[in-house]
Here is the input.
Amino acid sequence: MKLSDRILGMQESPVRKLVPVATKAKKRGIKVYHLNIGQPDIETPKCFMEAIEAYDSKVIKYSFSQGEPVLIDAIIDYYKRDGMHYEEDEVLITNGGSEALTFASIATCNPGDEILIPEPFYTNYNGFTSEVNVNLVPITTKAETGFHLPKKEEIVKLINEKTKAILFSNPGNPTGTILTLEEMEMIKEIAIEHDLFIISDEVYRKMAFDGLISHSMAELEGIEDRLILVDSVSKRFSACGARIGAIMSKNKLLMKNILKLCQARLCVATLEQIGAAALYSMPLDYADHIRDIYQKRRDIVYETLMQIPGVVCEKPQGAFYVVAKLPIEDAEDFCLWLLDSYDHEGETVMLAPAQGFYATEGLGKNEVRIAYVLKEEEMQRAMSILKEALLVYKQKS
Amino acid sequence: MKLSDRILGMQESPVRKLVPVATKAKKRGIKVYHLNIGQPDIETPKCFMEAIEAYDSKVIKYSFSQGEPVLIDAIIDYYKRDGMHYEEDEVLITNGGSEALTFASIATCNPGDEILIPEPFYTNYNGFTSEVNVNLVPITTKAETGFHLPKKEEIVKLINEKTKAILFSNPGNPTGTILTLEEMEMIKEIAIEHDLFIISDEVYRKMAFDGLISHSMAELEGIEDRLILVDSVSKRFSACGARIGAIMSKNKLLMKNILKLCQARLCVATLEQIGAAALYSMPLDYADHIRDIYQKRRDIVYETLMQIPGVVCEKPQGAFYVVAKLPIEDAEDFCLWLLDSYDHEGETVMLAPAQGFYATEGLGKNEVRIAYVLKEEEMQRAMSILKEALLVYKQKS
Here is the structure.
């Protein structure tokens, strides 16, 4: 009675070992600023709960496997207003972007197949793939170059007959990097030349700072058949707990097959779909409001980081994360120390050590991911604690 | 750019090809009684929506990966009141029973491994397993013997070094059969002797008729380490669209590993968990109320079936299904004919051909599954249409 190799081999959440230490700190009366997770503090638009409360919920019935028609229509209309055209059978509703990514892995890969991915990457991509025996092959990117992609030949040499897709989040979690149009064109070229699917996780789309536009891969022509788009209400509408996402593609055979996965798990929670339809029906410029909030927070984080000698990072362009190289040896040790041995006037910060975002052994050891998901005053305070803590930590060692 | 073999090999929903035919019938003005799906018409208890409306939902945050503490506590308390004892780290909340079953497949099997299952079985079990490259090996059971298990030696000879678990729903979907204590003891013996996990899908538990008790596998001693229980609010509380289920086991290593799967998909929808906590907090005897409703419907179905010459089925003991052998050649043809060529005063019925519930080629060809999920008057009417239709169909052929 042995557990499967695939589950035993799965990585535990890299911030997980910090959680009990943070809990202990709180028990000691320390206030912990959580910069370690992408849980925004911004209120979910009221229309979400209003739609749910207005729904006739006498019998909470199964929804359709493909999703509630009202939500699918709202998504199609949202994309249409944004210049992209999807049809009814090109959108399937999923349990968050997470399920969409698992479905994309199952649909494109058999056990042992490979997906290319720029590292550092969102650690849960490990889970979505390893649980279904797909291997992620990292394309290494670096803090020094703002985590932009390496040259085409660097990427192409990672491709073999097992490579089935290239996956990335844009804007990037954990880096906050936005792909340039040139990078997007290069991905398109590689995918066409090597016959790969493109899995574009665009859950942070619209969160682009300094007037930059974060383009959707769906704007590129000639890859309609190979593009799999992943979307979600979690970040764009600050509704992480709704667990509503979508998988979208113009490859109808693919969608017809992914529908079988949808049918197997019957449907996504009905009420949350009703709420999500209201979110997607809001004016497009709601995204600007959210972006402006994060841009101010980004500024606070970046300015403070630049005041610390030895920190390496480019100004993040989108999402609400930054990966920074700190003037220390071991970021995990530093993050633990912040929680179990340090406080500034009874307060400390919790960060995510970046090592867990890399697949290549040894990379990211002196890097952390900072999620700027707190109000400006709190971000200000949290960052000055971090700055102060680094001084103390370095003196100690 | 080929899709994976595993997704191409997945079965489509067996009732799916009937759906467009039913839609056409409705467009012709025909009323269709849906006896083809397990979607109860019973109202979801009001406490579900009341709890959601009372929840502070300013920010719809991620819930915990293991589930909302209030829901886990409510489930533990529910089982305690029912004589079973589970601890906090022995319960994980899932997206319906569906996700629990996928997680159980991943955790117990590597690609190519096998799970034993009595057939006919709930067709979606095919999905939960084939999407993760697990093979179901059927233990054939028959209408003539009320779909009870064959002798131990019949089961044991299906076991080989790839067999990792035995899976069943009890009470049974699609059969309505309840395992006897002797059958449960036999499963226990087999599992111990051949070192298998036991995956007991108990989402229909408490729905047992005629004073029968549907025991939980958790009541048996000596299998604590190998038992994986699956539960859900869908049927017992008539809340299918909530998509709240649970996976429970006293094997802590197993649960620690399944938690990694939970972490990968972050969490289950927050609001629905709040509602589900209210459902599990209701008095245990709410189940009696539900059971009494289904028992009356079962009586109508069974009495009518017994009036039809040539029908073979035992009186179903639980859940809200029955699989009946009809005096016809091809149940799929009959089900199609009911929708596209027959009506009785403008009304017809939709049934599920049972072939899709068997893994063994050729079995169930003249059987249908009837879900008794409509009000008594409607069930009465639907069953007399079926009775009438069988006469007409036989005369025609």
Q: What stands out?
A: The two ends of chain A are 47 Å apart (CA to CA). Chain A has two domains: 5-43+286-396, 47-280.
